[in-house]
Each structure stands twice: as C-alpha cells, then as structure tokens.
Amino acid sequence: MSVVRRSHERGITTLALDAPERRNALSAPLVGELADALKRCGEDDDVRAVVLTHTGTTFSAGADLRDPPHPDALVALLRQIVELPRPVVARVTGHVRAGGLGLLGACDIAAASHDATFAFTEVRIGVAPAVISLPLLPRLDPRAAARYYLTGERFDAAEAARIGLVTAAGEDADAVLAPVLDGLRRSSPQGLAETKRLLTAKVLDTFDRDAAGLTALSARLFSSAQAREGMTAFLERRDPSWVR
User: Fold this and answer.
1) What pTM does this model have?
2) Which residue stretches of the chain have pLDDT < 50?
3) CATH number at residue 83
4) Phi and psi of 241, rounded to 5°?
5) Entry's InterPro entries (predicted)?
6) Residue 5's beta-bridge partner residues?
7) H or E segment to which residue 6 belongs
8) Is-contact 67 74, C-beta < 8 A?
9) How far apart are the two ends of the chain, measured CA to CA in Å?
10) Which spans in the chain are helix H?
C-alpha cells in the first residue's frame, strides 16, 4: 500500500504523505517511497517544482518509533530534497513534530496555515534533533533554536515564520502559496536549478562537514537506556522517569 500520494498539474508535482493513521510518521517504508518519488521528479522534464504536503491533520509526527528509518536513510532523504534540481515547497496545514521538522528545513520554501503547530520533542524522549539539524540550523534563528530544541515547547505558525522554520504563515496555506507557485511556473528550469544551487550551497557544506558525526550521534542516542525509557513512556502515554 502506497504511503505517498502523487498528483501533477501545470508543471507542479504534489507529493502528499499519506499515512494519516500513523500521523505520517517517518517510517522506513515512507522514507523509501518518498525518496523514490523525489528521484522521479528530478528526472522528469515536465516537473517545474515539487509541493510536499500531507493528508490528515498531521504533516509528520517525526520518526516512527515502531519502524524507524536508519539515520543514514533520513540523512540521504534530507540531502536529496536539498540537492533536487527542482524547488521543493512544503505546504503545511497540520502539526509537525521532531523529524518532520527536518523535512521543512530541507525544503526551499515552506508555507503553513494558522492551524499548524510545531515542536522539537526529541529532548523529551531522551535523544536530540541531531540529523535534522543538518538543514535546520543554517536556516533558524540561533536563540529560537536554542529555546525550542532544549525545551520541546510547542509553537504556532506565526512563530515558525518569525524564526525561519517556514517562509510564511497565513489563514489559508493555499492562498499563501498561490503567488509562489505562479512565480515558479513562470521561471525557466535552468534558472530555477542554478538559483537553487546558489541558495543551498551553505546547507550542503553543513552536510559535507557534519553528516557522519550527527548520524553516529543519532544512532548512539537512540540505542541508549534513556531513549528506551523515553520511547517506552511515550508509547505508554506516561511521563518518563526523569520528569520532576
């Protein structure tokens, strides 16, 4: 059963994460299927840009704790979005947590409706936002990143726009995106590809420098005793042992 829904209209391919019963969590199958769909978009001359969105009320709840992707696979997916020779635009009308925020960081443009909420919840289960920091830290306001990384607090779409997590927020994400998609349709494929290359150069430098170390950190943390307690507590809907 497919977990990524594809549609195409006037040069724009939309890829919708379609596992709402799992809150579009980043499972190994979802990450693999999304990577395959993006690869096809990058090879298709009819695709001017890609919109990454979701079904259900959650864009992505982060890593699927029951069937997580290998950290290497998540790094590869994030880098693929950054390197894709087509602009990738996130359309968010629901909640985004933990690893799902890495997808937003990798996208070139992101629009969110006022219904969207965001949180870096890794610290609350005993791990850190390691791999997703590769595209996020070059884009986020440093003081805001420190606050939300360390506390796991939830914040709204207006705050997400203020700190650089999303490009713009509004009552209707489609209304926010309408002029963006019109502009992309009016732009040449060569112009878009080379301009994106300029814009993502510093993000890719971060991947080249830090990917191996952050992947190792992620693997170490997820295999730790505190992470096992944190994930068990999450699945059992209780506070972990360290909560005071």
Assistant:
1) 0.96
2) none
3) 3.90.226.10
4) -65, -20
5) ClpP/crotonase-like_dom_sf (IPR029045), Enoyl-CoA_hydra/iso (IPR001753), Enoyl-CoA_hydra_C (IPR014748), Enoyl-CoA_Hydratase/Isomerase (IPR051683)
6) 16
7) strand 4-9
8) no
9) 43
10) 28-43, 71-83, 99-106, 133-136, 142-151, 157-162, 173-185, 189-222, 225-235
